[in-house]
Amino acid sequence: MGGGTAESGPEQGGNEPLSGKQDGKQAGREGTRPLVPAQLMGLAGLLRAWRAVASERLGRQITQQDVADVCARSVRWYRDLETGATTRLSREQCEAIGKLFTLGRDELQALLLYSMGGAVAAGPAPAFDTPTRRAVQALLDQQANPAWLLDSKWNIVGYNDPMKTWCPWVMDPGANLMRWSLLSDEAKTVFVDWNKHAIEWLAMLRFSVLQHPQDAEIGALVAEIINADAYLRRLWEERCDVTEAREAFYYRVSLPTHNFEIVELESQTLFPAALPDCRMVIMTWLHPESSKTQAAEMSAQAPESGELARRSNGQLPGQISVATAAEAATYAGEGAVALPILSELMGHGCRLTYGPSTRTVIWATRQDDGRWDVAEVNPYTVIVRMPQAIHVKGASEEYKLLTRALLPIDSHDAVQRIQEMTAQLRRRIEVLEEVHRDEWEANRDQVPYTWHPVDEI
């Protein structure tokens, strides 16, 4: 399992690199010097975004004068903050702004970090030959569940055997959680609700930016991610979520080690006291009864049938449970196309519906209580699990529809991509035929004959 840069999100592919925008969007380079996080996001953009969110949450407009008053400063002083002026805020001012904007713990922590110029500089994770590192690795090895250790730059610096079995990509040189999760085709297949998780991963990256504003490696990682994908760049620029670490978080994954069956997991994040810049993440299985309880809670929060209009950019509003498969299909939006044959091949009470407006598939799964869990997935998630579908009578049209959805929207770009992929596939077929021939020549009595041009000479 490895991951390269991929087209992703409801709008696929990256367009122009992030330019030198101000107010939290600046990523301009000075010569060949690497970007530092402070060039990617600033306090000004966060303050404006937080003020807008708080105004909407409270149902009244919070003005610049309101913020200036709680900080005991002039409105001009605060206006300068929102236009990019560099200044340090006192702890009292940070707490006053946090109270006015109803900021959460992580957002307030981010504001405090920014006002102090960041946390203590993050150093490299200690080498394996140090007593501390050996002790942490021993702790990883003793875990029965998959577990890994991440440094402050989200690099994979330790893992146990179960994690290596679940996610072999962690063994790749320079493996990085954020790069794999946000840019690889594989991640979009593994995580059933990838769009939702992408928002959380970017929120954690924002916190890293504020925590280590002068760390060039973090700056380069963020720049690589937001420049590689237009959808991720838009999420980075338009949202203001900030998260230090995900709490116990529920998600569904589809892995080869589980025969691509969807399993429900929780991740627990721990910060070793001896390695303050690192975090240990342990995957735990959700018990069936726990899953049912969570499903019931999600069901209570799901919108009524009259509110099934799609949310921004084709992204579902969270974990959804509905009463019927028809109700689930409504999430595919206008022009939805049912995929009955692929649904039957998928089995296990599955109902698939393609949404042309978002180029995603609504995946509904019937639960023991008769309700249907709803997820939004990339068409690749369906195709990769059913390569045999192309040979099934009647399934070819549905298979072709999803294959087209994976290609660029523009016809010229789509054909160019097809030509590139066809050339690669032809070469792979040739290699397989060569291997077949080699096996036949080594074991002619046991292996079926395969033709080769040399046979005609």
Automatic annotation (TrEMBL):
* Domain named MmyB-like transcription regulator ligand binding: residues: 133-295
Instruction: Name the domain of life this protein comes from.
Output: Bacteria
What Gene3D superfamilies does this protein's entry cite? 3.30.450.180, lambda repressor-like DNA-binding domains (1.10.260.40)
Disordered as annotated region, ranges: 1-31, 293-312
Q: Where is the composition biased (Basic and acidic residues)?
A: 22-31
How far does the signal peptide extend, from start to end residue? Answer: none
Kindly give the InterPro entries that the UniProt entry links to this protein.
Answer: Lambda_DNA-bd_dom_sf, MLTR_LBD
Give one Pfam hit by family name.
MLTR_LBD
Indicate what this protein is called per its UniProt record. Answer: MmyB-like transcription regulator ligand binding domain-containing protein
Organism this protein belongs to: Streptomyces albospinus
